Amino acid sequence: SPRFVLAKGEELKLGDIALQANARLLDEIQVQGDRATVLHKIDRQVFEAQTFQSAQGGTAIDVLRNMPSVTVDALGEIRVRGANGFAVLLNGKPVQADVTAVLSQIPANAIENIEIITAPSAQYDAEGKAGIINILTKTQTEEGLFLQVNARVGLPNIENYDNAQNSPRYGGDFTLNYRQKKWDISLGLSYQRYDLSGQRVGDVFTIIDDTLTRFPSEGERSFDETNYSGRFTVNYQPHKRHAFSLGFFAGKREKARTADILYFDNHSQVLNEPNRLYTLVYFNENLQVRRGDFMLGSLDYRVQLAQKSALSASVLYEYTQLGGPTTNRNLAWPDTRELLQDERNDNQNPLHGGRLQLDYQSKAWTAGQLSLGYQFRYLDHRGDFLYERRNLFTNIFELIPEFSSEVNLQRSIHAIYGQFAGQKGNWTYNAGLRLEAMNRELTLRDKTNTLDSTYAYDFVKPFPSAQLQYLLNENLRFKAAYSRRVERTTTFKMNPFPEREHSETLEQGDPTLLPEFIDLLELGMVKDIGEQSFFATLYFQKVQNVVNRVNTVYNDSILNRIYANVGRAEAWGLELGSELKLTQKWKAYLGGNVYHYQIKGQFDNRPLNTDSWIYSFNLNTTWQVLPTLSVQASVNYISARNTAQGEDGRFISPNLTLRKVFWKDRLTATLQWLQIDGGILPSNEQRITTFRENEFFTTTNYIYEVDVIMFNLSYQLNASKNKAKFIKSEFGEREF
Prior knowledge:
This protein has a single domain, classed as Beta Barrel (Maltoporin, Chain A), CATH 2.40.170. Mean pLDDT is 87; it is low at 21-33 and 720-728. 2% of the residues lie in helices and 66% in strands. The chain has a 32-stranded mixed beta sheet that branches. It has three helices and 40 strands. The chain is mainly β.
């Protein structure tokens, strides 16, 4: 067959091409070319998910870690431009769930594009300190049947850090879609088991009066994680002006964290005295299990009105059951048959959530489109927390009332918005205002009926936004944007009753915790030079009521970890990215972010003032060895970053992927070498340090499994058709 290669902007006249009427003789027409890794729009960056081969077979988190301004550290915390609060949309619909929990349940194979919206417009919920991440799943474009089946398996551990068990990794998912005339029906099932070996090495000391207590430790810190879910969606369009969509979702998630730690030199001594008061060696056996059962349904309706306008309505209801036990046992060493202390805490957290949304769009104005809308959201989250300690004389578990509680959070939000967007000449513009009224009520009770308190908080606030873009020429454009945001608090961060996280840590919240309010301003440019592209964005972010996790001393060998508003935070930064085509077979994508971060305020009546320069970069390079064979290498790096009381250390994640396609792209095989270490690189580990002068110091190095080998297979029936869109948990996974 004849082949043609066209440069950008080039036209080629092919003349008359004769076609026979029998369509069955036409097998397919293939249009081949290099697709851009990133597409820049007035309010967002759009990244093509399949570009990042190290993520295939994984989840949305594995795709995200390749974005230029997104970082994922050793503890799985996701940040955008250094901020750890952002909203998640799934196919444009808001998801009020924990970010990590949501993204870990979305298969990377199901994702078409990821949109990073750092300065969202008024039509979006104001939630999200760092903006919005919109996950776009693949959508079917043709009638007929489509099937995709994916399977994944990992090789046995190369390094298991002397953990008690190895870490199995395997899973699979499939999507079945049928589209015919007015109907579009989709079914999806997925299962994934992904365990991770690891260890932690820590050192802590506390000072109470004139006595210093130190307790260094080392041992296992591993994770066992299982996710499985089922989804069903029906879209029905009886008329070109009317469309209905019905969706259901049910899923289960369990994540167990094992922290079996040897405290090999716990001792106390009077300051400036050489002699010890005591020395103790003991083994801490700790298991924390978090479970979540999710069930929800949604109904959407859209009608096309006269005069280029449309009205849409959406309703969603969710029921979620959250909970899980934590057991904490201190044992003698080396004879672990002797029990020194045995504690357990359990909780049950049923959650009900609802959302109603109405939107109206009109294109009747020549200057642009007017959008108006209303949204109501409701959350009812109840928690029953039980904390018990074994009586070593009677062998009976007894209630610890100061750690046991009943919590009930009710939150309602009413929001209206107006927005106008358009284009004139080389200018593109978008301006809007969102007005939000929130009411929050937190009720606390203890198990002895001595405490029954209610904490109320409400606000009515405007959230303005504006975007402006100027196209200087075909290859150069400039952008500016402003957005005001809010980061709401979760139930967990407001529960003041302590929870025993592990032997040396209690964790508790603040019932008076305020939401964070954020102002973001950014200026950017995008430049194309032939087949290369470059972008740069300057940004400023100011956060009021910034929430940080801070520590105090509970007793000589336990720190109290508290979520608190500590003041104001500011970040000035520069985000850079470049897409390069080095040769016909070799291309690279580079992204980076550098910013100055400062926290200023107070905690526990003592001033806080910390600042530092922080940077991160992502490198992704692909060599197309053959038309059906490619090799891709990637590196993700995060520098050390300051916190309110210390520093989170640097983190590096190198990966290598070999990809081969068969049977006219119907079958794809991928071999991945993840978290490359090879005994040389300090990959997949991070040190967390906090301190308070003359009170405590703690540093912990979290070391997770390296040199992970994964094998993926993906088969598509009717590959020209794609996947369908499903609904996702709106409330429960945020609390998970």
